[in-house]
C-alpha cells in the first residue's frame, strides 16, 4: 500500500495524468489461438471489482508503485487472465483506471504500474533498458504470487512508453502471450533520429517531461546531452544505446516466443513515425495486427482513457479477449492491416502492409521554369540542375509537435504553405499538372535525386503537398535527411522514404514537392553560407514515387 506521506504527490500525479490525457484528446506461422479459459467466470453478469494500491518489488531492490483490480467474489479456486499495464512516459499507474476497470469487470486481473524512475517508483529512468526488462518479469512474478492470475494467459498493453515496454516484455519473457502496443516504438533510432537527423522538438519534449516527473539515469542524461548537441563523434555510442532499447532488435526472440502482437499508431505521430513500426510489423511472424489512424502521439486512443467510446481500445479489447480468453470474436480472421485515411472515408482493410498501395506512380523531376518551379510528371528534362541556399526557413515545414497533427485529426487542417510564394532561393519546388482523378495516396512516398553541397555537411527536408487552385498546399507527408563528413562538391545519391500516410488528393488539385533546409521540428546541419544543388541526368533521373490505391 502507499504510505500516507506519498498521497499528495500521488494526487498531483493523477491530476497531471488526466490533464495530459485531456490535452492529447483535444489536441509467417501465426501463433496458435489461446485455449478458452475455463477456470474463470468470464461470461454472464459483470462482477464487481476490488481496487488496491500496491508496492511491487522490481529488479535490483527497486520498488515499483502500482495498483491492482481484481474481480471480486473469488472463492480462491478461480484463475483469471491477466493484463499488465505499464504507464506512459511521464505518467503514472493511474493512467489506465477507466480501461483497467472495464477489463476487470469482464473477468481480468489487471495490474498497472509506474515504470522505474517516474513519480513514486524507485530507481532511475532507463528508457526500456535492461533494468526495465527485468522489472517486467518481476511484475509477472509478483502478479502470479499475489493475485488469482492464470499463468497461461498473461498479456501486456500500454500507450507510448507502456507500448514499448510491452513489446520488450514479449521478447524477453515467454509468459507474455499477447501484447497491445499503442503509439509505441519499434526502432528508437529510426523514431527520433530518422534520416540521421535529430528530431529536436520530440527529444526536447521527452527529455523535459522526464526531468519534470522523474529521475533520468546517468546514461540517459549523457545520451540526451550528446544527441541535442549533435555530437557525431558519439554517434556510434548513441546508436548502440538506442538499439538496446528497440523491440526491433529482438524481433527474432518475439517470433520465437510467439506472443500475439497488435500495433496501433497515428499517421502523424511526432515521436514514433509510422515507417519504423510498419517495418517491424513486416518482420513479425506471430499472430499480428497493424492499425493506423489520423492524429499525433497517443491521440487516437486518448478518449478511451476516460472510458469514452474509442475504436482503438475496442480493437485492443477484442485482441486481448481472443488471445487471452479464447473468445471467438473473429479478429483473427479479419485482414490484419486496418487504416483510416486522414481525409476521411472510413476504415480500409488489407492483407499485409505491402498490399496497401495497389499501384505506384513514378513522377520525374524536371528543370525550373522562368518562375522557378520544376515540372513533376510522367516526362521531364533529362538533364538539369537546381541550386538553393541554406539555413533560412522557406515557410514550408512539418508544423508544431502535437498541435499541427491535432488540427489535422479533428478539423482536417494539416500544416499549410502558399506554394507560389515560397522563396525559390532557399526552396526547390516541383509541381505536377492538375490531377484528372482523385489520387488516393497510401503508404510510403519515396524521393530519389542527386545532391551536391558546397559544405562538408548537408541536411534537407522534403515535403509533399496537396495544392488547390489558389496555390495553397496542405501537407501530405515529409521527412528529413542529413549527410555528415562528406566531401564538399561531390555528388551524392539521395534515396529518402517520406513518412507513410493515407491521404486523398481531390481531382483538380496538384502535387507539389518542396525541398528546403530548415524545419523547427529538426536539428539541421548545413554550414553557414553553403549551397545545395539537386540534379538529374539521362542515366540517373530524379523522381518521386507515389503509392496509390486505385479501387
Automatic annotation (TrEMBL):
Family that this chain belongs to: Belongs to the AB hydrolase superfamily.
This protein's name: CocE/NonD family hydrolase
InterPro entries according to UniProt: AB_hydrolase_fold, FrsA_esterase, Galactose-bd-like_sf, Xaa-Pro-like_dom, Xaa-Pro_dipept_C
GO molecular function: hydrolase activity
Protein keywords: Hydrolase, Signal
The Xaa-Pro dipeptidyl-peptidase C-terminal domain, residue ranges: 317-544
SUPFAM superfamilies: alpha/beta-Hydrolases, Galactose-binding domain-like
Species assigned in the record: Streptantibioticus ferralitis
Pfam family, one: PepX_C
Protein's UniProt keywords contain Iron-sulfur: no
Record's signal peptide: 1-34
Top-level taxon in the UniProt lineage: Bacteria
Record-linked SMART domains: PepX_C (SM00939)
Amino acid at each position: 500500500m502507499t504510505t500516507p506521506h506519498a498521497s499528495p504527490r500521488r494526487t498531483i500525479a493523477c491530476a497531471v495524468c488526466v490533464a495530459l490525457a485531456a490535452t492529447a484528446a483535444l489536441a509467417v506461422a501465426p501463433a496458435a489461438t489461446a485455449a478458452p479459459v475455463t477456470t474463470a467466470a468470464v461470461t454472464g453478469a459483470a462482477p464487481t471489482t476490488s481496487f488496491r494500491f500496491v508496492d511491487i518489488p522490481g529488479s535490483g531492490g527497486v520498488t515499483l508503485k502500482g495498483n491492482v483490480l481484481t474481480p471480486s467474489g473469488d472463492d480462491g479456486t478461480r484463475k483469471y487472465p491477466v493484463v499488465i499495464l505499464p504507464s506512459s512516459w511521464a505518467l503514472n499507474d493511474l493512467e489506465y483506471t477507466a480501461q483497467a476497470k472495464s477489463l476487470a469487470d469482464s473477468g481480468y486481473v489487471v495490474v498497472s504500474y509506474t515504470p522505474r524512475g517516474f513519480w513514486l517508483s524507485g530507481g532511475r529512468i532507463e528508457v526500456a533498458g535492461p533494468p526495465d526488462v527485468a522489472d517486467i518479469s518481476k511484475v509477472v512474478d509478483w502478479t502470479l504470487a499475489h493475485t488469482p492470475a492464470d499463468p497461461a494467459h498473461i498479456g501486456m498493453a500500454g500507450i507510448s512508453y507502456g507500448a514499448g515496454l510491452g513489446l520488450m516484455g514479449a521478447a524477453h519473457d515467454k509468459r507474455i502471450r499477447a501484447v497491445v502496443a499503442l503509439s509505441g516504438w519499434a526502432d528508437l533510432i529510426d523514431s527520433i533520429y530518422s534520416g540521421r537527423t535529430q528530431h529536436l522538438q520530440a527529444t526536447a519534449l521527452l527529455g523535459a517531461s522526464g526531468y519534470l516527473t522523474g529521475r533520468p539515469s546517468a546514461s540517459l542524461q549523457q545520451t540526451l546531452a550528446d544527441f541535442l548537441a549533435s555530437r557525431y563523434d558519439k554517434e556510434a555510442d548513441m546508436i548502440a544505446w538506442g538499439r538496446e532499447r528497440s523491440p526491433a532488435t529482438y524481433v527474432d526472440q518475439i517470433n520465437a516466443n510467439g506472443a500475439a502482437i497488435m500495433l496501433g499508431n497515428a499517421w502523424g505521430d511526432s515521436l514514433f513515425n509510422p515507417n519504423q513500426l510498419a517495418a517491424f510489423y513486416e518482420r513479425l511472424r506471430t499472430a499480428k495486427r497493424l492499425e493506423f489512424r489520423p492524429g499525433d502521439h497517443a491521440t487516437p486512443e486518448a478518449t478511451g482513457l476516460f472510458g469514452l467510446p474509442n475504436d482503438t481500445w475496442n480493437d485492443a479489447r477484442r485482441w486481448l479477449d481472443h488471445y487471452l480468453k479464447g473468445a471467438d470474436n473473429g479478429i483473427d480472421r479479419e485482414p490484419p492491416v486496418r487504416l483510416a485515411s486522414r481525409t476521411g472515408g472510413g476504415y480500409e482493410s488489407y492483407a499485409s502492409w505491402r498490399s496497401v498501395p495497389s499501384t505506384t506512380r513514378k513522377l520525374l523531376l524536371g528543370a525550373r521554369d522562368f518562375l522557378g518551379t520544376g515540372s513533376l510528371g510522367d516526362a521531364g528534362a533529362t538533364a538539369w540542375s537546381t541550386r538553393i541556399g541554406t539555413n533560412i526557413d522557406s515557410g514550408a515545414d512539418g508544423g508544431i509537435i502535437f498541435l499541427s497533427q491535432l488540427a489535422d485529426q479533428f478539423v482536417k487542417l494539416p500544416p499549410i504553405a502558399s506554394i507560389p510564394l515560397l522563396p525559390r532561393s532557399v526552396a526547390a519546388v516541383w509541381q505536377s499538372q492538375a490531377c484528372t482523378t482523385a489520387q488516393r495516396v497510401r503508404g510510403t512516398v519515396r524521393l530519389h535525386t542527386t545532391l551536391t553541397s558546397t559544405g562538408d555537411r548537408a541536411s534537407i527536408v522534403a515535403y509533399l503537398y496537396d495544392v488547390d487552385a489558389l496555390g495553397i498546399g496542405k501537407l501530405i507527408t515529409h521527412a528529413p535527411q542529413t549527410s555528415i563528413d562528406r566531401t564538399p562538391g561531390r555528388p551524392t545519391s539521395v534515396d529518402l522514404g517520406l513518412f507513410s500516410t493515407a491521404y486523398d488528393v481531390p481531382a483538380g488539385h496538384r502535387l507539389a514537392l518542396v525541398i528546403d533546409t530548415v524545419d523547427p521540428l529538426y536539428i539541421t546541419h548545413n554550414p553557414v553560407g553553403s549551397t545545395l544543388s539537386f540534379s538529374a541526368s539521362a542515366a540517373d533521373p530524379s523522381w518521386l514515387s507515389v503509392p496509390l490505391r486505385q479501387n
